[in-house]
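Forwarding the complex inputs:
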Amino acid sequence: MLSKSNQSALAPALAASGRAPRRRVQVAGLVRALVPYAFLLPACAIIGAFVLYPMLHAIAASLTDYNMITESNFVGLDNYAMLLEDPFFWNSLKNTLLYLVFVVPVLVVAPIFLAMLVNNALPGIKMFRAIFYLPVITSLVVTGLIWKWVYEEQGILNYFLLSTGITDNPVAFLTDPANALFSVMAVTVWTGLGYYMVIYLAGLQSIPRHLYEAAEVEGVSKWQQTIHITIPLLKPSIAVVAVMSSIAAMKVFEEVYVMTQGGPLDATKTLVYFIYQSAFEEFEMGYAAAAGVVLFLLTLVLSMINLFLLRKDR
Amino acid sequence: MKHSAFAIVGRYLALAGVAVLTMGPFLWLMSTALKSGSENIFAYPPALLPESPTLDNFVRVLETQPFMLYLKNSALVALLSVGANLLFASLAAYPLARMNFRGKNLIFLVLLSSMMIPFQLLMIPVYDIAISLGLQNSYLGLVLPHACTAFGVFLMRQAFLGIPRALEESAMLEGLNRLQIWWHVLIPLVKPSLATLAVFSFIAVWGDFLWPLIILDDPSYYTLPLGVNRLANTFSMDWRLVAAGAIFSIVPILIVFIFSQKYFIEGAMRGAVKG
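Prediction (whole assembly, two chains):
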């Protein structure tokens, strides 16, 4: 298949008789053979310069003591060895994995219900879909600030909790190390609900209607329909959401940066926050790059699981 | 399917509940932004509505902070990034969908795998490259990393694959070259996918924080998220002003969203199905 294109491009040239025209045809054939590359050039140049080359660069940097100030030296796997002994790194890895464990299940399950709720033609349903989507379009920095305000010790959320008797004392959402990570997680969930709802909505709308109609005739209850028709046919969407939300959870940064700066007592310091801090506050670029490679490997594992699940299901 | 009146009321109650959950924090922010300086914003119980609504906080924010400049920067960066992404992605997608050439599979595979690389790993070398190209504190520096996404190439490739080959062949018989076919025949047929990609990349660029944070230190290039963050750092205690700035930064994307809501939701659904 690879050489076919060249053959077809050169075939007219070879078939042509007479020298002068033949040469012209050859040049035209060459130009034609270059056409696909010309189309690809801008995209490949940008992705090459800002993704692929930096990727190799990052891996190389992770093997040096690069710090932007002094000459960098090759240090082999020293950075990785240091990571293994760095309690701050382990703490950030732990927080990121906690994120994965708590946020992903919620983001996989809750939006299914939301999608089922908005998957109908009730008057005004499009407006509700749009409202549920609002947090998705809002910049995470702004979202973080909004919630920082909602979470205030004397804030609206505490007022609600106190006045309904759910708690007796105001909750220190962001200032108590025991709560902070969960408070930040709640914001991530709040932001993601609408997005995954739409993915499930697409999945729901691709389920053939006649399946439900048949079930209705058979007298199968709504709940049974959900269990036996909706959920099984939604499996591909569920797999997509599981992986997308896991990868997103690995990369959490903005919420933390705005709401807690990684505190209190490093309780909300995620892996990306650790990388950012090592690179741009402590200027240990090589060390940060090594942590970045770890992040990449974890993401890669999740992506592989994704591909595996999708191949199995589709 | 028919619903009983009871079920319909139940549905609306649930919808309203979720609406309060998603819109509530925005409304609370709005209320705070409208409260005057004399009103205690930490009053207990909290005043849901401002006593005497005022636009003073917005005026003060606009007077003391260059929010119009941030808005201009955000708009310019978003426009250039989205435009470039649409152009470059749909150019690259054409040969990947419709032509045979040496290295096609390899290029395809490399582009595919580039989607799995987190920006957080790349930020250090990309920062380096940008610095050595003199891109710090420039619009080009903000735009270039967003100027073409592998996701865009794939979305457009899917769209091109769905167009009948016969159309292209007849255009070729008419004597159109590949570039003309791309522009006159294919592009008009993939407008929905272009809209999807535009919306996706617009949300990503408009809300982007990490990259501008790294590459900018001159506030005159700040985009809205950085502007709001700066405002929050400057007036960390005065929530009225922070709220006003945040509201100001939300309004533009809200307006875009209201007028093109259809594309946001349908686009996201299309992206989910195809992407």
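Chain B has a mean pLDDT of 90.
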